[in-house]
Amino acid sequence: MRNFSLAKLFAALLICNIYLFTCAVSGTVSEAKPQDQNKQSDDFQNDNTHGGTIDFIVEDNVVDTGGSNELETLELVNFGFAKPTFAQKPLNSSYTPTSTVKSLAGLASSSSSTTTSTNTPIIVSMPEPVSSEPVSSEPVSSEPTSSEPESSEPDNSSEPIIPNDPNPDAANEILRVKNSGREESGKAIDIVSRIVQNEVGNTFAPEAIKANAVAAYTYVKYQNLHGNTPQCVLKDTASESVRTLVASVIGEAIYYDGTLIQAVYFASSAGGTLSSADVWGGDLPYLQRVECDFDAQFDPNYGKETMFTAAEMKQYVKNETGINLTGDPAYWFEIENRISGKYVGDMKIGDKSYYNDSSNNSVEITGRRFRENIMGYAIRSSAFDISYNSSTDKFTITTYGYGHGVGLSQHGSNILAREKGWDYIDILTFYFTGTEIY
User: Fold this and answer.
1) Which terminus of the chain faces fewer neighbouring Cβ atoms within 10 Å, N or C?
2) What is the pTM of this model?
């Protein structure tokens, strides 16, 4: 009996060792535990990370397509993007970047139908009336959270080791940012790694992480060179995999005609990106509309539903525009046209195309103003559909994409890297028209 028990114990230990060896050999890029790939957080309004770019400058020599002469530094609110949940499966550490021809043929599903999210709709309660004081849309967190697993090892982040750093001079360059409003300066490798850890984490494909690193470095460097300290949200520390990928491209930046660009970025697009002229009024040649027909198939933010009661929608409109909606709610909102994918261009509210703001200025009603001014960022994107159900007396707003829509799409970069095998240069030159990376 004893010999039999020992034999069973030996066999069990052997099987366990084989299993552990197999797991160690396969390896992953991410140190974090993989999550269910189909699990997507809808609690985006309470997430204080993944804010995308906030500050935007329009240069003096840029053509103003909107007819306004007020082309100066524009500070945008933090967009509070949801935590990326698209690329949650482990990524093999033997991933080799491959430069491919930029063809999107076959990337989208061959299915003729478009599948949208079937997640439970988000029910949003009408907030209390907002005071006239400007309020940041960035949720306040008493303690920043980290996606890193707990470790008993000492924290050596103050003097990080940069594995195989190809450009130590660029890694040690000092960059300045405002981390959640607090001014902070540090080595480029530290600042960029912490930005990237916050924006996309270490679950995205390696080439997508590198693309986001180059964009973040370019964005901060551009702002610093123009005398600005851009607002960013930084994680306290970055994972080893993120630091290694950032170190492999640190110092590389995005240029148009030999000049550093404003490398703005956001969470995800809606079948296409927007141009800078569409959103901010300055027509920059490298921030043009780019078609992204793969969004509907792969992007987790494509087709998110948020529900509001008719009374809530009426109050949102009344608070900002002064328009008093009456009659059948099914006719309160009308989308007149769209731009670049599913982004809403002009729209009407209660048969009105304009309203007077608090300064009595006439304001045109557009998809962007509906999302930002009227709804106060209660919806993810200015690409949306609105429907009304009379039996429940509720509106459903279906949004496509997440964020302002200009420049690099973070989820789009992950799609192109993971599904198409594009490298970071392919990705960046796709989203930033006519640029070079060096």
Assistant:
1) N
2) 0.69
